[in-house]
Specification:
mainly alpha; two-stranded antiparallel ribbon; 2 strands; globular; disordered N terminus
């Protein structure tokens, strides 16, 4: 009998040791990391856009996206074609302006309110338009909006007056911009075909100021926030 009890006790102890060892070893094994979430579809589209731009000859593409949940950045290409040094997300770049887009929206809002007729002559809203610029024929607001007026670009005489850095950083009022445009000959043959000229939007900005009774900067400021909200909503829908 005594021998049987000892053997039974040994079997029980062995079973307990196995259970304890199994529990201890289970605690030492680290749980697998959760799978990384798939990047939003919008980011894949942006990376595809970057690849396409590089394939079409762009030296570099830098993208930064900020959402309510974090930030995402992307850099591809080179800083310099000579050195072939890779571009980084911290590189400083000169971005394009959105001034013309804001002016165009301001003009279209006035048209939607019935305060401006796109097919009316610019001189109806800006009486000095004809006396300062001396256009070779009637010019409508729509022609200014679509760069089909043929108006000389004030940048031409501006750049001829000094270096790029000096002239591009020179503050000019809208009236001064149009006065500079008036120093260049206005070729009537360019009217009614697309011919980009910054003077078109200088004139439109003045028209907006006259109809709103405030500077174009004050008029455009709330539009910036509206455009940011629309862009954020579009990005969220893609994500």
């Amino acid at each position: 009998m005594g021998t049987i009890r000892v053997r039974g006790w040994k079997r029980t102890a062995a079973a307990l040791c196995v259970a304890l060892l199994a529990g201890a070893s289970a605690g030492c094994i680290r749980e697998p990391d959760p799978p990384k979430p798939e990047p939003p579809a919008a980011f894949a589209l942006l990376e595809a856009f970057s690849a396409r731009m590089l394939a079409e000859g762009a030296p570099a593409v830098l993208i930064a996206v900020r959402t309510g949940t974090g930030t995402w950045s992307h850099a591809a290409g080179v800083r310099s074609l000579d050195s072939a040094e890779p571009a980084t997300v911290s590189d400083t770049v000169r971005v394009g302006g959105i001034t013309e887009s804001l002016i165009a929206v301001s003009v279209m809002k006035l048209a939607a309110e019935g305060r401006l007729d796109l097919d009316s002559q610019a001189s109806r809203y800006l009486p000095e338009f004809g006396s300062v610029l001396h256009p070779p024929g009637p010019v409508s607001v729509r022609q200014l909006l679509t760069h089909e007026s043929g108006i000389p670009d004030f940048s031409v005489p501006l750049l001829a007056s000094g270096s790029w850095a000096e002239t591009m950083n020179r503050p000019l009022s809208l009236e001064q911009q149009l006065a500079l445009a008036a120093t260049e000959p206005w070729d009537g043959r360019l009217a009614r075909i697309f011919d980009y000229s910054r003077s078109n939007y200088a004139a439109l900005a003045l028209i907006v100021e006259r109809l709103r009774g405030r500077g174009i900067g004050l008029e455009a400021h709330p539009l910036i926030h509206e455009m940011q909200d629309v862009a954020q909503e579009a990005l969220n829908s893609l994500c």
